[in-house]
TrEMBL record:
Superkingdom of this protein's organism: Bacteria
One Pfam family recorded for the sequence: Acetyltransf_9
Domain N-acetyltransferase per the UniProt entry, residue ranges: 3-158
InterPro entries: Acyl_CoA_acyltransferase, GNAT_dom
Protein name: N-acetyltransferase
PROSITE patterns: GNAT
Species of provenance: Lawsonibacter faecis
Molecular function as annotated in GO: acyltransferase activity, transferring groups other than amino-acyl groups
Phylogenetic lineage: Bacteria, Bacillati, Bacillota, Clostridia, Eubacteriales
Length: 219
């Protein structure tokens, strides 16, 4: 079957939310909130619709990726614009077939062509390293609390773009997960049972690996 990667259209919005919910359900937590995040992101100024892509197999939607504006805030308060992708997903019955990789590579090429200079993401370094992402300690980039995290990674779309750029990574869209709003939104989808999975345990290990670098700490 031929995989087709094409730009997302408004007609894809709801199907992409359904797909995202299926892909993330019980993956990182009981249930998920990624479909709600995606829905809310589209109403935010941070949303970059020109970088949204879908993957199709014989007309069936099997993958999706979304992008948002983010930034690095330097110590002096100046800002360096970046972009972030996510959620990115493939249909559960089509995983490990290169769909996510195809979406990431296609959209990153488009981002570069549009003049974006660097992408910063939060994800599993065991996966995203294949696309050229490096741990942000290499660039002096931290979370908002000043900590490094193995899952905080950056890719220079323009060679050398992050040289001399160090600071704290800030999301362009302030999403607060959980609560009644998520429950009400999720009620519009088919009922699914929440549960614990080993992938949730794995995610918590990576999520809790944040650390600070103490200058001359071994002296």
């Amino acid at each position: 079957m031929q995989l087709t990667i094409r730009p997302e259209t408004p007609a894809d919005y709801r199907p992409a939310e359904v797909l995202t919910r299926e892909a993330f359900w019980n993956l990182y937590q009981p249930g998920c909130n990624e479909h709600h995040y995606l829905h809310q992101l589209r109403a935010s100024p941070a949303y970059l619709p020109e970088l949204g892509y879908v993957a199709e197999l014989e007309g069936e939607l099997v993958g999706h990726i979304a992008y948002s504006r983010t930034k690095i805030v330097r110590a002096d308060g100046s800002e360096f614009p970046t972009i972030t992708f996510g959620p990115v997903c493939a249909a559960p019955d089509h995983r490990a077939r290169g769909i996510g990789s195809a979406l990431i590579r296609r959209s990153l090429r488009a981002a570069k062509d549009l003049g974006h200079r660097a992408a910063v993401i939060l994800g599993d370094p065991r996966y995203y390293g294949r696309f050229g992402f490096h741990g942000c300690e290499r660039f002096g980039l931290t979370l908002t609390d000043g900590k490094y995290l193995p899952g905080l990674m950056a890719l220079e779309l323009e060679p050398g773009a992050l040289t001399g750029v160090s600071g704290r990574f800030l999301e362009g869209f302030d999403y607060v997960p959980g609560g009644e709003e998520l429950a009400a939104f999720d009620a519009g989808f088919p009922a699914k049972e929440k549960g614990f999975t080993e992938s949730q345990r794995d995610f918590q290990v990576i999520y809790n690996l944040g650390y600070q670098v103490i200058e001359h700490g071994f002296m």
